[in-house]
Design brief:
The complex is a heterodimer of chains A (531) and B (328). Chain A is globular. In chain A, strand 3 and strand 4 (75-77) form a beta hairpin. In chain A, helix 7 runs antiparallel to helix 9, helix 12 (436-444) packs antiparallel against helix 13 (462-471) and helix 13 (462-471) runs antiparallel to helix 14. Chain A contains 14 helices and 21 strands. Chain A has 531 residues and is of the alpha+beta class. Chain A has helices at residues 3-24, 53-62, 111-122, 169-174, 238-246, 258-265, 305-314, 317-324, 355-364, 385-397, 410-418, 436-444, 462-471, 477-494; strands at 33-38, 64-65, 67-69, 75-77, 80-85, 92-97, 135-142, 145-150, 165-166, 201-207, 211-216, 229-234, 252-253, 270-285, 329-331, 371-378, 401-408, 424-429, 497-510, 513-514, 529-530. The two termini of chain A are 37 Å apart. In chain A, strands 1, 10, 11, 12, 13, 14, 15, 18 and 19 form a nine-stranded mixed β-sheet that branches. Chain B has 328 residues and is mainly α. Chain B has a two-stranded antiparallel sheet with strand order 1-2. In chain B, helix 1 packs antiparallel against helix 12, helix 10 packs antiparallel against helix 12 and helix 11 (274-284) packs antiparallel against helix 12 (287-315). Classes of the chains: A alpha+beta (531), B mainly alpha (328). The interface between A and B is large, with 58 and 53 residues.
């Protein structure tokens, strides 16, 4: 069958589909173009260069991954129809590749392309390499089966694949982009502004930071989506973004400012949907050093359990939710969102603040006059991050802890944690693998090698480290969950984190459009329905 | 004459070098670009490697030297954020900024002179008073607020004009993309141009008004009236002509500020120019783009000043005499 015939066939099916939609929702058939605005543009269209939210979100419409992530956090088949650990060898993951998938240039996708893409994604300077660090070899067993061999058993490896896109090997070789673009090389790679994926939409126009136009891909394997054209425009300024929605120039706004949510909900013709984001906001502190650089105390107050307890007693999470977040947050006590494996209700329970008891504890710890400390806070990274810190300053003052707030831009804040130059800081953490191990690996484990890179507490517990490392290779998931629970007990007992809340996401759209909030803030326009 | 130009050129080069040095020194306080370039899973060793590869660990002098030697031949490297060559990125955004600056500059001049003359001639009239009052808004309200208010009134409430972007653009000669040739492009230009030009318009208007009032009291105006010339000939043929010299100087110099200050307007209206590019680069610590932008703005000011200097030199004979006398 010639490609042309094939296309006509698909187009006919598409039109039938559109007709069915039109019949079901009379009068909605003209609403096919979706104008979508959010705060920032994708940094690049290269599928493996950047592990960054807006970049993945746009690329998910052009490229596809082996497995997808549904709005409830569960995994869904995409380019892989089935997956599982090999029965003969527990270090091997087996993927059944979907048949009949074609790239936008018309060539068929094969297991070879999957092997090529996974190899490209795990080779520096790819931004995805860290997620595939344990991979030793990727092989195509036959046309539709791919084996991924890891350095040891990796029961959750498949969770790392939800943002690793599959690209065409032939196309990459033709255009000299066999590896992800290299910043240091000093030249632009072809794949930054050109694409060839298998995704539901074809990129037809790309003007970085201005406008990206996607058209529905006639040769896509799945049912045709209701949206046939996407016009994606980044609008950096919050007020302008909201104005563009109110004036009818865009249909969906993804990053709705917290202060505008209530007003937009009361506006005729505008509909706001909300959902929890996969991102938790918490404070943490140096609980290991002998002395704090920014404190007037002779020793390290954070090393004393009484002080950590006093701080937990002083944090009024509900007040922060009401006043700072205008109701748009989920107060929590542990640094993981509810849909992450290992979360329990007990873990997240917290009591009422008790300032009198907190002040007593601080005095008992050996600071009758309290102590002072600097709090480092980003002011452009999380929702109302600086205001959350300001609220904490007032609350801790009632426990006789004098906090001097230092808030600055993200590019100055995060190196402080990386270089251990802060005593007390705010951090937000998302869990892209939806499993507690990710939290432990980066935030709890002693800093060494690939572990503990965001462990700003200097906390180091060899027993806990051993348990954390064991999680990576445990294939008995029940036993593994038990170890996760043990680690959480220890972490909560030690009060390594002073947790504030989970962030909430809100999308605003004009009436007649339905789109669910995606926990990773990666909405798929294929799921949009019109009514 | 040649010596004068050479001296001025040499001074310009020194100014450019100084700007480069100051800009480069400032970047050390903007923060670390690595955090935004790699994913949160990257290990500390990988971060260190990238920092090495980009030369961020080199001594300051070394970094500055490398930057200068490449900048001289127009190579500003590749954007950390958008992975495109910086020169190409800036050139592709420059037309948007220049078109906006041009339109708001011309509008500011035309309306500034018009209102200035009107308010000078009709002193005390209700129209003049209200123009003067409204013009206060132009000087006192921040650009950001003016932009948001205009969006609110004309895009959201009245829905006459677009709230963001540049509309449809037409490609001219390969690299200059213009918004002048399409309906949506012209409509998109109106609100940003007003926002950007309002302050300059107010400035020119007040300058023209003050100058006019001054000139209208001059003897030669009285003589002109005595000669029985029409009001029109007196006001426009004699008075206005004599007020325009300082106005043109100010307008020329303000053109540089319009280009440099377009940052805020461009951000509010999501105008795809170099100003918005700069702001986004600062957020990301995209050092190559920031450096190139600051050099570009310095160049704009240096060139404008050079032209103004040369014009003075031609206009003012005293300058020529002094210089040649000093030379011997």
């Amino acid at each position: 069958m010639s490609p042309k015939l094939n296309q006509t066939g698909v187009r006919a099916r598409l039109m039938l589909g559109a007709a069915a939609v039109a019949l079901a929702f009379a009068g909605a058939a003209n609403a096919e173009t979706l104008r979508w605005a959010r705060v920032a543009d994708a940094l690049t269209l290269d599928p493996h260069s950047q592990n960054e939210g807006p970049t993945h979100t746009l690329n998910h419409h052009i490229y596809e991954t082996l497995v997808g992530r549904a709005v409830d956090g569960s995994l869904t088949p995409s380019l892989a129809t089935e997956w599982g650990i090999s029965e003969e060898d527990d270090t091997v993951w087996v993927f059944q590749i979907r048949e009949g998938v074609t790239f936008h240039d018309g060539t068929p996708m094969t297991a070879e392309d999957v092997v090529f893409s996974l190899d490209r994604a795990r080779t520096p300077p790819s931004g995805m390499a860290a997620l595939h660090a344990a991979v030793e070899e990727v092989t195509a067993v036959d046309d539709t089966t791919v084996h991924v061999r890891l350095s040891g058993p990796a029961p959750l490896y498949v969770q790392n694949l939800t943002n690793t896109f599959i690209m065409s090997k032939a196309w990459a070789e033709e255009n000299g982009v066999e590896t992800a673009p290299n910043f240091a090389a000093g030249e632009e790679a072809y794949s930054v502004r050109n694409t060839n994926g298998t995704g539901p939409y074809v990129m037809v126009e790309r003007d970085p930071e201005v406008r990206t136009v996607l058209q529905v891909f006639d040769g896509h394997w799945a049912d045709a989506p209701a949206v046939t054209e996407i016009i994606y425009t980044p609008i950096a300024e919050a007020a302008t973004r909201v104005a563009a929605l109110l004036s009818g120039e865009v249909d969906v706004v993804q990053d709705v400012p917290v202060q505008d949510i209530a007003r937009l909900e009361q506006t005729d013709g505008i509909n706001v949907v909300r959902g929890p984001e996969n991102r938790n906001i918490f404070f943490s502190y140096d609980m290991t050093s002998d002395r704090l650089a920014s404190s007037d105390a002779e020793d390290n107050p954070f090393a004393k359990p009484e002080v950590r307890e006093a701080m937990a007693l002083s944090l009024d999470r509900n007040a922060i939710r009401q006043v700072v977040m205008r109701g748009e947050s989920q107060p929590s006590a542990a640094p993981l969102p509810p849909f992450v494996n290992g979360w329990t209700e007990e873990l997240d329970a917290f009591g009422e603040p008790d300032y009198a008891r907190a002040a007593e504890l601080v005095a008992e710890a050996g600071y009758p006059n309290g102590f002072s400390v600097d709090l480092n806070c980003p002011n452009d990274r999380y929702l109302n991050d600086e205001a959350i810190c300001q609220a904490l300053v007032g609350m801790l003052a009632r426990a006789n802890i004098r906090v001097n707030l230092v808030s600055q831009t993200r590019s100055l804040h995060f190196p402080l944690i990386e270089n251990w130059e802060t005593d007390f800081y705010l951090l937000g953490w998302g869990v892209p693998t939806f499993d507690s191990q990710y939290v432990f690996d980066f935030l709890v484990h002693t800093r060494e090698g690939s572990y503990g890179s965001f462990n700003g507490t200097r906390y180091s517990n060899p027993d806990l480290d051993a348990k954390i490392q064991s999680l990576a290779t445990m294939t008995d998931l029940d036993a593994r969950d038990a170890v996760i629970a043990e680690i959480w007990d220890e972490v909560m007992e030690e009060r390594i984190f002073l947790n504030v809340h989970n962030q909430m996401l809100a999308y605003a759209m004009r009436d007649g459009i339905s789109l669910d909030v995606h926990p990773e803030n990666q909405p798929r326009m294929t799921t949009v329905t019109f009514d | 004459m040649l010596a004068f130009i050479l001296r001025r050129l040499l001074q310009s080069v020194i100014v450019m070098l100084a700007v480069a040095l100051v800009a480069f020194a400032l970047f050390r306080f903007v923060g670390d670009p690595i955090a935004s370039m790699v994913g949160q899973e990257a290990t500390l060793a990988e971060r260190m490697e990238l920092r090495d590869a980009l030369g961020l660990n080199d001594p300051f002098v070394m970094q500055f030297y490398n930057f200068l030697t490449r900048a001289v031949v127009g190579d500003f490297g590749i954007s950390y954020r958008l992975q495109q060559p910086v020169m190409e990125l800036i050139l592709s955004r420059l037309p948007a900024t220049l078109e906006l600056a041009l339109v708001s500059g011309i509008a500011a001049f035309v309306f500034g002179v018009g209102f200035g003359v009107y308010t000078a001639l009709r002193r005390g009239g209700w129209a003049s008073s209200s123009i003067m009052t409204v013009s206060l808004i132009g000087v006192s309200l921040p650009t950001f607020l003016i932009g948001v208010l205009l969006i609110w009134a004309f895009a959201v409430e009245l829905q006459w004009l677009p709230s963001f972007g540049r509309g449809e653009v037409v490609n001219l000669g390969g690299w200059w993309r213009t918004g002048f040739l399409t309906e949506s492009g012209r409509m998109s230009l109106i609100l940003p141009a007003i926002t950007l030009g309002l302050y300059q318009m107010t400035l020119i208007m007040r300058l023209v008004r003050a100058e006019m009032l001054e000139v209208l009291r001059a003897d030669y105006i009285k003589f002109a009236r005595a000669r029985g010339l029409s009001n029109r000939a007196v006001h426009f043929g004699h008075a206005l002509k004599n007020t325009l010299v300082p106005v043109i100087t100010i307008t020329g110099l303000q053109l540089g500020s319009i280009i440099a200050f377009s940052i805020i307007t461009e951000t509010v209206f999501q105008w795809p120019g170099v100003g918005a590019l700069f702001i986004n680069s600062v957020r990301f610590v995209d050092v190559p783009v920031m450096a190139a932008y600051l050099m570009l703005i310095a160049l704009v000011f240096v060139v404008i000043n050079l032209i103004v200097d040369l014009l003075y030199y031609m206009v003012d004979p005293r300058l020529r005499l002094d210089r040649s006398a000093a030379g011997h």
